[in-house]
Amino acid sequence: MKKGFLCNSVLYLLIFSGFAAAGTEQRFIGDINSGSLTEAVHLIPLLDERGRKILPSDNPLAPFSTRATCGDCHDYRKIRGGWHFNAVDPNVNPGRPGQPWIFADASTATQIPVSYRNWPGTFKPEQLGLSPWLFTLVFGRQMPGGGSGELVSLDPDEQIRQQLAGKLEINCLACHSRNSAYDQADFADQVTRQNWRWAAASASEFASVDGMVAKLPSGYDFNAPALMPEYGPDAPVIYYDKNIFDHKNRIFFEVSKNILDSRCNFCHTRNVIEPKQSQLNADIHLAAGLTCVSCHFNSIEHNIIRSYEGESLASSNPYASAVSCTACHLGDKSKPVPSAGYLAAPLPKHPGIPPIHFDKLSCTACHSGPWPDMQTGRVKTSRAHALGTYGADANDYILPHIVSVVFAKDSNGKIAPHNLLWPAFWAVMKDEKIEPLNIELVRETISGVIGEGRIPRIDDWPPMNDEKIITAIKTLSSVVTDGHPVYICGGKVRSLENEKLNVFEHQIAKPYLWPIAHNVRPSSQSLGVRRCQDCHSTDAAFSFGDVEVDSPLPAEKKLNKKMYEFQDIDSTYYKFFAFSFVFRPWMKLITILCSAILGFVLLLYGLKAMNRFLKWLSEG
Question: Comparing 154-163, 325-334, 382-391, 513-522, which segment has the lowest mean pLDDT?
């Protein structure tokens, strides 16, 4: 009896404590909206990572912490769960496959899509031997902080480096700064220098940083720099503009929730290399005065809207279903309040277009991306090619090679424009299962084999042939004890059998595609605006264009796939269907003539009937 009473008491205590905790959830002053559209003035003190106030008289000066400084008024924990930072959380719904991070290394003929999200066709960083520390060092240049930058490495040596570098906290200024002197490229440079705790401050308009943690030994002690005076010049030192502090030692942050497009462009630029004329097409939404956050917005949870059809099934953002092509331009007629015309979006009429087009095609199929050509082109993106960072290679042929535009089926089963990447990497095969090899292991083992006889342009594919692949596989076999080394490129796997290469297809070698939505073209430049033959003809790029098979092997560089192979369409049927449009003008003319003749006959018989009727009346 006493035992039961005790259990019930504990249970009730837990329940009531849960209710009390739910009712007393901390609300941060910066997250409470009174309803005013006025921007808040951010005149606040700087706090270091321990929460201590930074004074201009401090010696030494500490870099301010965004987690402490901004988190004093805003819920940093909620922000951390936002789309830009939550990729490392396996419980987050990945939604529609998007642009991955791409690890590219010309010395090993490698380009491979990497993502923490569960997107089919991508590989987890740990599969390639990329710990959170290494992943952030490679890709943190175009990350807004947080995510992998705040994870603790399991490797003791990396833990020591993390203690020196500090955590790469969420950099609120990367998006919210409105000051033209804010420099995101400097933030990227500080990440490379391993100056993570200094990165946000160094990029700001009121501070600068000298030195780099990357040059410091793992045993360096910031609290006792005199013990290693030879490394003193390399230790990071921060300098603040002392004129920015007011009499209360506060500073003014020029920030806003209305994000500048230039802040988005640093990580989301898409530069069309081929065909060049596609660069002339400005996005119709930007030309009309909209901004990136007009469609891609969020609340304090930073669960940003990606604005694709069906996003509401994957996103917890309540506005996910309200901002998309159809939601803005067509609206939901089942709602009691008209929802079409968001931000003055015009209502399309689509006269003469059979309804089946809207079942089979996405809006972007006709309205987005470069106009399709009979041969796919190439694009460079910020995240894949480090655009905007210091020393970014402007070479058009630098790895990775992204093929565009490819019309393929998306996750909704509709044909949409995509970017495409042909993976090329070294892997190990065991019992029909193939896994990528550790990147560093491959680089240390075969970079000399692959890089031998390199051409002057070292950022493109190295000169490859079957002999080099055979030699590299044999060399890797000496360090790979469980399984057989293989090489994936051009959509196929190459393994060594009886001193010869065995080439075969495998799911792991298939290209990775992700949909594109920009730049959006106006209706006057959409596919089909001139005639049906824009898509429905035997020489229409939409279905019969050549998709480049990118490969380091010269023999495969001339290979192409047809666009319809990515659309799950029977080529014979589609060719006959497209061929029928050749005769459609004749059929229309014959139909008009037959209708005219039929009308004339009906008119003739109608007049005869009227004549008989009039005679009947006169006789009566």
Answer: 325-334
Q: Please name which of 296, 308, 298 lies closest in space to residue 95, comparing C-alpha atoms.
A: 308
- Distance from C-alpha of 184 to C-alpha of 173, rounded to nearest angstrom: 9
Q: Which ranges of 308-381 does DSSP label H, i.e. alpha helix?
A: 325-329, 356-360, 363-367
- 557-573 residues labelled b (16+ CB within 10 A) or e (exposed): eeeebebbebbebeeee
d(CA 130, CA 360): 39
Q: What Å distances lie between residue 140 and 143, 144, 199, 394, 423, CA to CA?
A: 5, 8, 11, 20, 22
Cβ atoms of 215 and 251 within 8 Å: the answer is no
Residue type, 39: E
Instruction: Indicate the DSSP class of residue 212.
Output: -
Per-residue pLDDT at 297 exceeds 80: yes
Longest dimension (CA), the chain: 131
Nearest 5°: the CA angle 247, 249, 252 is 100
Residue positions counted in the chain: 620
Question: Which residue in this structure is represented by tokens 């009730």?
Answer: 12
Confidence of residue 452 (pLDDT cuts 50, 70, 90): low
- Can you point out the beta strands (E) in 290-414? 377-381, 402-409
Task: Determine the Cα–Cα distance for residues 123 and 101; give it in Å rounded to an integer.
Answer: 10
| Torsion angle (degrees, nearest 10) of CA 24, 30, 34, 40 | 170
Give CA–CA dist 491/471, Å, rounded. Answer: 21
Summarised one tens digit per residue, pLDDT across range 487-500 is 999 999 999 998 89
- The answer to whether residues 69 and 410 touch, using CB atoms and an 8 Å cutoff, is no
Domain ranges of the chain: 39-97+125-253, 425-510, 584-620
Contact 212, 193 (CB under 8 A): yes
Tens digit of each residue's pLDDT (9 = 90 or more) over 191-218 = 999 999 999 999 999 999 999 999 999 9
Rounded alpha-carbon distances, angstroms, from residue 420 to 17, 117, 374, 400: 52, 18, 16, 11
The DSSP output letter for 142 is G
Residues forming beta bridges with residue 177, ordered by sequence position: 255
